[in-house]
Amino acid sequence: MAEAYERYRRGYPEELFEAVIAYAGRPVHTALEIGAGTGKATRLFAGRGIAITATDPDPDMLAELREHVPAEVRTERAAFEDLPTGNSYGLVYSAAALHWTRPEGRWDRMAALVEPGGVFTNFGGPVQLADPTIDDAVRTARAPFLAGDDFPSPDGTPPEQAMQWPGTELENDERFTDVRQFTIERRLTMAADDFVGHLSTVSAYLELPPSTREQVYARIREVLPETVDINADIVVHLARRAG
Questions:
Q1: pLDDT surpassing 90 at residue 137
Q2: Domain contains 202
Q3: Which residue blocks in 100-242 are alpha helix, DSSP H?
Q4: 179 in any annotated domain
Q5: Quick one: which of 102, 94, 45 has its CA closest to 74?
Q6: Is residue 173 a part of any domain in this protein?
Q7: Average of per-residue pLDDT values in the chain
Q8: Which residues span the domain enclosing 78?
């Protein structure tokens, strides 16, 4: 799984780092990453004078991460729920991983991990086919096995609402202020095999039985041209720890 994440998941642009630092409005000296995976987001923040602790419960993910980040990045094998709250950080961030954390006590723990005046940010977004005709063909191909591959909002926020999760929850937590949401538009062209490879890292497919997954991937690949245009917008949420 770590190999697939490293090969098929996209990294993050410089624009995202600049936006987070501008929002912080002060030097960021320490950072904690939740669900670091193979370190796609770690690389964006590493080597900039920030002491980073990258955490993930999967040892294979962390082993892959260490191959791609500076030696000074500290790694810790732990799920978010198991992280000690004795230390707080100027920045806590999560890239397409926060939905894996348990809702019970999520913001209590987060508030303990972000130092007063510090920043929490969550960012990510789906990789979607830009051509509606091809998208319809893929939906038809997977329909016998999977109704959809979108990840529903963890708090039930409808997709048409302006503020999306986790901003919706952050706005209702008095320990966080100045909640913001913005989108970094990103357009890509991918080989069809790489698009199917990316699907192999998406939770909706991972939850299928292995034999079913292979059938779905084969059916999807049959309806794709050799390359596909992709919408891969990054939705960013920012919030400041009050106090």
A1: yes
A2: no
A3: 106-113, 132-142, 167-171, 192-199, 203-206, 210-222
A4: yes
A5: 45
A6: yes
A7: 96
A8: 2-126+153-186+233-241
pTM of the model: 0.94
- Alpha-carbon gap, residue 204 to 6, rounded angstroms: 19
pLDDT at 172 over 90: yes
Whichever domain contains 95, its CATH number is 3.40.50.150
Q: How far is CA 208 from the centre of its chain?
A: 21
Q: How far apart are CA 188 and CA 123, in angstroms?
A: 18
Identify the band that residue 1 occupies on the pLDDT scale cut at 50, 70 and 90: confident
DSSP letter (8 states) at residue 99: G
Number of domains, the chain = 1
Q: What integer is the mean pLDDT of 120-149?
A: 95
Supply 84's token pair: 């000690």
Beta bridge partners of 180: 238
Q: What is the pLDDT of residue 220?
A: 97
CA separation, residue 187 to residues 29, 191, 226, 229 (Å): 32, 14, 17, 7
Smallest CA-to-CA distance from 131 within 205, 225, 235, 194 is with 225
132 in a structural domain: no
Residue 60: Cβ within 10 Å count? 13
Is 92:113 a contact under the CB 8 Å cutoff? yes
Q: Is the pLDDT of residue 151 over 90?
A: no
Q: Which two tokens stand for residue 174?
A: 């008095």
d(CA 121, CA 92): 7
pLDDT band at 223 (very low <50, low <70, confident <90, very high): very high
